[in-house]
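Justification of resources, computational component.

The compute hours requested in this renewal are based largely on the per-chain cost of generating structure records like the one below. Each record pairs the submitted sequence with a full structure-token output. That output is archived, and it is also reused by downstream analysis tasks.
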Amino acid sequence: MIKPLAFKGDKKARKRKAPSGSGGGERGLTVQNAATETKDDDSWVTVEAASDLVGPVILVLASRTQTCIACDANGEVFASELENMVEKNPTTAEPHDVRQVWIANKVVGTEGISFKGHNGRWATLTIRLLGLLNGIRYLSCDRIGILSANREAISAEESFLCILSPETPGAFTIHSVHQKLLAIVEGAKGPEIRGDAESISPNNMVCIRMQARFKPKYKTTLEEKATHRISRKELEETVGRPLKDNEVRRLKKARVQGEFHEALLDLRVKGRHDKYS
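The structure output for this chain reads:
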């Protein structure tokens, strides 16, 4: 199912809840609901490793005013001011304009990352159709450091190396194929993005934010949580008797720790002893 990119403040459509059935049905519904939550999660998180870079991202710059890399309908790359940010903290930034969003993908056979823009031609961004629509352009940096988004195919100039900064937590330096770095330059007309910096400085630091549901570690964590969810009714049906609150907590904890069957056996044995005492 094609799902458009959601922005902060957008109204979410209400979903019907499936009727609960037997204990097994409830268990299936619990896992299904958790999977749905993963797909519908439109929150943004900070990229912690270059290997996580995939899907919609925003590239937050180290400018005086809070900006990120964006492109217009003519393929011109510019610094776009961010509106959705908490206390000017780049690790809380979220896009409010579709022109601020790029689709990150690994370049096959290399360690490079490509960034696809849409050139501002749509009011909404449809992620799964993004590679099929006309007008898609890749972020590019030429030999003299000029950035643009006019090319429809990937060459060496559309591939970037993103390296996590050892000195600035949560920040990356973005390197072009010409061994230069992307940087923000403060000018009289406002911040300008260049790709010709030769040394690392605070102006090179880029905080990359991505949609949470595309982050590999985040997806794995949610899937693991889904397998750990179980209702009191399911536990009581499994044990074969009503459970006390402390017994429910014990079983749920054992399920998370991988010791569920041992704890279940202990409770069943205890139940038999109580019955004949």
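The first helix runs from residue 23 to 40. The chain has five helices and 13 strands.
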